[in-house]
Design a protein that fits this description.
Elements: E1 2-5, H1 10-21, E2 26-30, E3 44-47, H2 54-59, E4 65-68, H3 81-98, E5 103-107, H4 119-133, E6 137-143, E7 146-147, H5 152-160, E8 166-169, E9 175-176, E10 179-180, H6 181-193, H7 204-216, E11 222-225, E12 231-232, H8 233-243, E13 250-253, H9 255-269, H10 277-281, H11 294-298, H12 306-309
Helix pairs in contact: 1-6, 3-4
The chain binds NADP nicotinamide-adenine-dinucleotide phosphate (NAP).
NADP nicotinamide-adenine-dinucleotide phosphate is lined by residues 6-12, 31-32, 35, 49-51, 69-72, 76, 84, 107, 109, 143, 145-146.
């Protein structure tokens, strides 16, 4: 039995489709099973919440592998970013160890560090530490920005593109290697199939060299998931505008104005705010891997370019 958290999310839904198609026995820890759509009849459901540790115990019964994707880039009424991403992961790992789970797959973020300026990156760094220090076989994925057509982030950009000018928070120069959620799900499937981290598609010697590099970098089961191209925030906005066939001048809104306005909006609109400063800040911090797409390709996945996925050119 495999426990999947975050099955209703961007990566989770793509991964769940693949697991179900392969006939895997899957249990999903969800807040609202209706959000699983048609898949809810093909999986076991464990009602749970990241802020409710007793729900982890029930969900983990008889589980050998956990794929922990559930996370949040904004505060929720029941839990802060730190609780939802950091403390909840630590609790999930503890519960998994107690339940006799063999393998724990965790999604961190590219560039996670306890010294990072963004709360989300600090919380993920602590979570990653908890996973790596646990007595479980672990695999950590650290993705750059993950996207899919119609996802909440691209939807915000599409709505902004209705304005006569395209507002961009800050200077828009931070760099990313966006990766399509479908490619991310393929990477997870490949890593689950090859628990020892060996590669199928590479010549043996090359696979050995990469494995040695990764061991030297600290954690052998850590994959940086980066797409095939390095794009600035400005470039990404231009790709999205291109996919909508809209020409708009980019207007850079100074960061202090964005942060003050979004904090005010959050105070007024609460959890329903269309964007928060914690989310907008993520587009000001680079998320690039020095290895580029090597880890993705090493898993046998040829990552798609963002423009191709969004149907530009
Ligand atoms: N997307 C990116 O650009 C990106 C970049 C780097 C790392 N990551 C990491 O990659 C993983 C997958 O990301 P994603 O983009 O697929 O995430 P996502 O689309 O935002 O989905 C988040 C998932 O977490 C669940 N969740 C949120 N709060 C919860 C709570 N309190 N209790 C239980 N479940 C809760 C959501 O369930 P509901 O349906 O109930 O809301 C949803 O299934 C995450 O760990 C994320 O931090 C993502």
């Amino acid at each position: 039995m495999l426990l999947l958290t975050g099955a209703t999310g961007l990566v989770g839904s793509a991964l769940l489709r693949r697991l179900v198609a392969e006939g895997a026995q899957v249990r999903c820890l969800v807040r609202d099973p209706r959000r699983l759509g048609a898949q809810r009849v093909r999986v076991q459901i464990a009602l749970g919440d990241l802020t409710d540790p007793p729900s982890f115990r029930n969900a983990l019964r008889g589980v050998r592998t956990v794929v922990h994707l559930a996370a949040s880039i904004r505060d929720q009424p029941q839990g802060s970013i730190e609780e939802l991403n950091g403390i909840a992961t630590w609790r999930m790992v503890q519960a998994a160890e107690k339940a006799g789970v063999e393998r724990f797959v965790f999604f961190s973020v590219l560039g996670a560090s306890i010294h990072h300026r963004a709360r989300f990156f600090r919380a993920k760094a602590l979570a990653e530490q908890a996973v790596e220090e646990a007595g479980l076989d672990s695999i950590v994925f650290a993705p750059s920005i993950v996207y899919a057509p119609g996802d909440p982030w691209l939807t915000v950009l599409e709505r902004l593109a209705l304005l006569p000018v395209m507002p961009v928070s800050g200077r828009g120069r931070a760099l990313y290697q966006p990766i399509w959620a479908e490619d991310v799900a393929d990477c997870v499937m490949a890593a689950l199939r090859e628990p020892d981290g060996e590669r199928r598609t590479e010549p043996r010697r090359e696979a050995d060299r990469r494995e040695a590099d990764r061991r030297a970098s600290g954690h052998p089961g850590r994959y940086e998931l980066a797409g095939p191209e390095t794009l600035s925030h400005n470039d990404i906005v231009r790709v999205v505008l291109g996919s909508l066939n809209r020409r708009r001048p980019l207007v850079h809104v100074p960061t202090p104005i964005v942060s003050r306005s979004l904090r005010l909006l959050e105070r007024v609109a609460g959890p329903n705010a269309f964007a928060t400063w914690d989310e907008a800040e993520l587009m000001e911090v680079p998320m690039v891997s020095a290895r580029g797409a090597a880890d993705v390709e090493g898993l046998g996945v040829e990552p798609a370019r963002m423009a191709a996925v969004l149907g530009v050119g």
